[in-house]
Amino acid sequence: MSRFLLKQMFTEQQQKLFERKGGKESRYVEKWQKLVHILGILLVLLLALLGIGLSIFMFIYTNKAEKVIPSREDAQRKDTIIPIIQDVPRDAIPPLNSPEYESSLEAERWIQNDDIVLGVEFAGDARAYPIKIMNWHEIVNETIGGRKIVITYCPLCNSGIVFDRYLNEQLLSFGNTGALYESAMVMYDRETESYWYQITGEALTGSLKGQRLSILPSTMMLWKEWRALHEDTKVLSLDTGYTRNYLSDPYRAYENPDSQPGFPVSIQDNRLLPKDQVVGITIDGISKAYPVKIVQGKVIRDIVSGQEFEIIGDIAGRSAQVFLIKDGEQISIPSSSTFWFAWFAGYKDTLIYEEE
C-alpha cells in the first residue's frame, strides 16, 4: 500500500477520532453550561430570599424597638397601645420561692455597709433583700409575718416594690415573663397567666386584665441604716440554689441620671432627669413623686389629698421613707422607689414635690 493511501487512511481515522472526541467535549461543555445556568438561578433565588428575610427582620425589629414618644395627650389616652417587648425567655431571670435567709451577723461576711437593700417588715418580721442579689432574680414569692407577698425589683427602673399576692381572695404566685413594658419588668402569675406591669401592679393581659395588685409598705436604703432600725432582721442568703456572681453589679454604668431608659417608653417628662430617683405615693387617686435628691438627709412634711405625710430622706440619697401622720403617730404607707422615667410612665398625672 502506497504511502499516499496509508496517509489517507490515517488521516480519515484521525478525522473520525477527532469528531468522536470533539462531540464528547461538546456534550460536556453543554452540560457544564446548563449546570452553571442552574447554579446561577439558585444563587439569585437565595439572594432574593435573604433580602426578603432581612427586610422582614428589620421591619419587626424597627417596630419592636424604635423609640416613638407621642404627645402627652396621646400617651394619656386609654386606647394608646405600647408594645410589650420580649427581651429574654420566660423565667430566664429565675424568681425565688421561699428562699434561705441569714442573720445580720452571718450576712456581715459578704454584705457591705453601703450596699442597698429592699427592706420589708410585717408583724415584727423584718427582711432585707440586697439589691446585689435581686439584680439576678428580680422576684421573690414569700410569706412574711403571716402575709403572702411578692418582693419585686426591676434593675432597668431601679424600682423596688412589694405587692400583696392575694387578689379577690385568690392567692397568686409570680414569675418573670422576660418581657418589658415601658422599659419595666413584666411579671406573670402562674394561676391565670396574666401579665403584670411592675410599676403600677396592673394586669396588662389575661383574665385579670385591668385589675391591680395592692402595693405594700417597703423601703430601699443602705444596709447599715436598715440594720440600725431592725437589729433582728433576716437577710436573703447568697445560697439561692443558683450560680451567679452576686458580688458584682452588672447595672452600675446604667444608673447615670442623665442617660436614657434602656428600652422605649411612651412619653417622658423633663421636669426631672430620666433616672433621677424618686419615691412615689398614690393617695385617693392623687399621685405624687418625691425626688430623693431634694429630700436627701432631710425630714419634710407635706399634704396630699388633705392628709399629712412625713418624708424621711436617707443620707446616701438613694431613697426615702414615707409615713402618714395620724394623731401624732407615724404610720407606714405603700410607696414605690424608682427612676423618674418609670414613675412618670406609670403615673402620667403625677405631681412632684418641690422645695419651697
What's the alpha carbon Rg, rounded to whole Å? Answer: 33 Å
Task: Outline the biggest β-sheet.
Answer: 5 strands, antiparallel
General form: elongated
What is the spatial order of strands in the main beta sheet? 1-11-12-13-14
Tell me about this structure:
This protein is of the alpha+beta class and 356 residues long. It has 7 helices and 25 strands. It has helices at 3-65, 72-76, 104-107, 131-137, 223-229, 292-295, 340-346, and strands at residues 85-86, 96-97, 101-103, 116-122, 125-130, 139-144, 147-154, 159-164, 166-167, 170-171, 174-181, 184-189, 195-197, 202-205, 215-216, 219-222, 234-236, 277-283, 286-291, 299-304, 307-313, 320-326, 329-332, 336-339, 351-352. The protein has a 5-stranded antiparallel β-sheet with strand order 1-11-12-13-14, with no helix packed on it. It has a 5-stranded mixed β-sheet with strand order 2-6-7-8-15. Strand 22 (320-326) and strand 23 form a beta hairpin. The protein starts with a helix and ends with a strand.
Brief summary of the model shown:
The protein has 356 residues and is α+β, with helices and mostly antiparallel strands.
What keyword list fits this structure?
356 residues, alpha+beta, 27% helix
Question: What topology does this entry show?
Answer:
Blueprint: H1 3-65, H2 72-76, E1 85-86, E2 96-97, E3 101-103, H3 104-107, E4 116-122, E5 125-130, H4 131-137, E6 139-144, E7 147-154, E8 159-164, E9 166-167, E10 170-171, E11 174-181, E12 184-189, E13 195-197, E14 202-205, E15 215-216, E16 219-222, H5 223-229, E17 234-236, E18 277-283, E19 286-291, H6 292-295, E20 299-304, E21 307-313, E22 320-326, E23 329-332, E24 336-339, H7 340-346, E25 351-352
Parallel strand pairs: 2-6, 5-17, 19-25
Antiparallel strand pairs: 1-11, 3-17, 4-5, 4-16, 6-7, 7-8, 8-15, 9-10, 11-12, 12-13, 13-14, 18-19, 18-24, 20-21, 21-22, 22-23
